[in-house]
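Hi team, as promised in this morning's meeting, here are the two structures we talked about. I've kept the exact order from the run log so nobody has to guess. The first one is mostly here for context; it's the second one we should focus on when we meet again. Sequence first, then the predicted structure tokens.
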Amino acid sequence: MNRLNPLHAGAVLIVLVLFFALKLSGAKEELILAKEEYKETSITLNELSSLSSAYLGKEEVKKSLQRILAQPSLRGANIEQKLKSNSIILNGSSVDKEALNSLMGKLLNGAYDIGSFNIKKLSENKASFEVEIQW
């Protein structure tokens, strides 16, 4: 009775093989899920890096706004700039509609993060506005 029965050893080996086969199939499924998550993460990372390069930093925003406001159509518009820690506010109390149209076209077509935007019609040719551009 002290000897090991070959049938018992074979049964134990078969159970061990089945156990490891189940573990291996579970590991394969986890690997497939990890690969899919990696692909999704890399796509998201690429999108985020393209967005961060599209939006400008603080100094780039200041320089590009200075270029825009220095244009001849906007020089006489009396547009005030208020600098905050994380944004700049452009304010015009009585701006001609052509100058306002030019400014809004440049701001809305540019890569600016516009936080708030208010325009109020004063007369047929004049309007007031306030735009907050964040960085």
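And here is the second protein, the one for discussion:
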Amino acid sequence: MTESPPLAMKSAENYIELLLNKTKNNRSLALTIFIKLFAELPAQLVEISTAIKLQQLTTAKDITHMLHGSVSFCGLMDLQEPAKNLEISLLNNDQKTAQQHLNELKLSIAQFLSQQQAILTLLS
């Protein structure tokens, strides 16, 4: 039996299609949401990382919950899963597992952000 391959990184077109479906093909709204995500996600990661390092788990939980809600609303499943896992580990006060899930979330968000210019170009 062979192992399943790792999930492939989504392309800019995949992300755009997901958000256009959510916005009923409103390109302007999709662009606005992408711009907001591109600004907020990196800032939220920094805030979560800092809160975990300072053992301020309530703050980390709150920010993770907001991030998880945003990516879930937008249908960004490749970001939603690691955000959910991080949120669960924080709810369980499991700092070691939380750090592992944070690293997974950072990677997923970095992959999403690597598509930023292509997304903005295609939607503009």
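Starting points for discussion:
The chain is about 80% helix and 0% strand.
Residues 1-7 have pLDDT under 50 and may be disordered.
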